Amino acid sequence: MAEPEPGPDPLPEDARLSTLDERLRRATSEEARRSGEGASASSEGYRLGNRVLAELIGGMVGGAVIGGTLDYFLGTSPWLLLVLLALGIVSAFRNIIRLSGKRPE
């Protein structure tokens, strides 16, 4: 039986290459996190849900506050409150419909 001919000894891995690989991996993951590429679908849904809730609350509270203030100063209680509250709700639903119709980026 012939023994395999001895070849050159394999070179040990250079420590500088392994640290460079680790630094590149870390920089790539930090860049992905910074640019938002690593965001999962569940976080997108969570963000959209928060936006919908903010639109609803903002529309209703904004309409009620402005309507109530105008009613107080103009003495038309409760008509402007009701009208502006309804307009706030309508604008909130319009914004929600517009948000839900957006294509994912």
Give me the oligomer status: single chain
* Estimated helix fraction: over 70%
Order of helices and strands: HHH
Total E-strand runs:
0
Q: In this structure, how is the largest beta sheet organized?
A: none
Name the beta content range: under 5%
Count of separate DSSP helical elements: 3
Q: Give the integer mean of the pLDDT values.
A: 85
**How far is it from the N-terminal to the C-terminal residue, by CA?**
65 Å
Low-confidence residue ranges: none
Radius of gyration, whole Å: 31 Å
Apparent shape? rod-shaped
The SS-based structural class is mainly alpha
What does the model show?
- It is a single chain.
- By secondary structure, the chain is mainly α.
- It has three helices and no strands.
- It has a domain at 40-105.
- Helix 2 (41-74) runs antiparallel to helix 3.
- The chain has helices at residues 15-35, 41-74, 79-100.
- The longest helix is centred in the middle third of the chain and has 34 residues, at 41-74.
- Residues 1-44 are annotated as: Disordered.
- Belongs to the bacterial AtpI family.
- The chain crosses the membrane at residues 79-97.
